[in-house]
Amino acid sequence: ILLLLRNPKDVATSYYHFSNGLSTLSSYETWNKFFNDFMTKRMPWGCYLEYLSKWNKYADDENVMTITYEEVKENPAQSVKNIAAFIGFSLTEEELQLVIDRSSFQSMKKNSENTHGALGKVLFRKGGVSDWKNLFTEEQNEKMDKAFEELVGGTKLATKLKYEVYCKA
């Protein structure tokens, strides 16, 4: 099992834009309304922080590899090598480069119309890290930090997420 995690604040930010871009989901007039729903667990797919908390019990399983979106963005080559090794797959340097090139956000966004149709425009927005800083108020930031600490703080997944690095303002 490959468990891909992402900074919860960026998850909220991306989901806000996703919700507003997809007609089948509730759209939100304001970020504040969305944030309230996100923090009070009124999301169609549940609470991301609870999801992290539940997965923590599997963090040490030998058949589970945990990787973060931030790690992949920071060092795609090492991430692909680690994933390949985990699943028992060896890659030549040429194959490694091909995987890196084809799985880059830019490449997937460029090909999204072919791979995902009209949904591609909604799925592939920015692909960055720390976009949450453009939406979160100081109060929202503190509220998310508190909820994270209560549900996930001190766990292996919290450490893996490098919450102090990617999630603190």
Brief description of this entry?
This protein has 169 residues and is mainly α. It has twelve helices and two strands.
How would you describe this structure to a colleague?
The protein is mainly alpha-helical. It has one domain: 3-Layer(aba) Sandwich (Rossmann fold). The protein is 58% helix and 5% strand. It is built from twelve helices and two strands, in the order βαααβααααααααα. A two-stranded parallel ribbon has the order 1-2. α5 (76-86) packs across α6 (93-103). The longest helix has 14 residues, at 8-21. The protein is globular. The mean pLDDT is 89.
Layout of secondary structure:
Layout: E1 2-5, H1 8-21, H2 31-39, H3 48-55, E2 65-68, H4 69-74, H5 76-86, H6 93-103, H7 105-110, H8 112-116, H9 120-123, H10 138-151, H11 156-161, H12 163-166
Parallel strand pairs: 1-2
